[in-house]
Write a structure and sequence with these properties.
This protein is of the alpha+beta class and 104 residues long. The protein contains 3 helices and 4 strands, in the order βαββααβ.
């Protein structure tokens, strides 16, 4: 199944975000150790397209629980940067083949 993950970050956490950015990217690259496959993702920003508000991902995961676990074990979440996590299922007809996955 495919899921949209939206993680909203707490305000004023830029320094903490930078401290955990490399670990976050590693988490994405490995799909959280196999919990999910990240098809695409990026930072969410203010309208200036620079100031981070959070991050999103399109995940392939066997269940909501696996997608949630991927989000909760992200170094950003473990560091206390994440204020909220939203996991929403995508339609069964979602055309994932149109995206070049970030994880193998």
């Amino acid at each position: 199944m495919y899921w949209v993950m939206i993680c909203r970050h707490k305000p004023g956490m830029l320094e903490l975000r930078e401290q955990h950015r490399d670990a976050h990217r590693q988490h994405v690259a490995t799909g959280g150790g196999g919990l999910a496959r990240v098809l695409i993702g990026s930072a969410l920003t203010e309208d200036d397209a620079e100031s981070p508000l959070g991050n999103f991902g399109i995940l392939e995961a066997p269940s909501r629980e696996a997608a949630q676990a991927f989000a909760e074990t992200d170094p950003f979440a473990r560091a206390g940067l994440v204020e909220s996590i939203e996991i929403t299922a995508l339609a069964s007809r979602f055309q994932a083949h149109r995206i070049d996955p970030m994880t193998a």
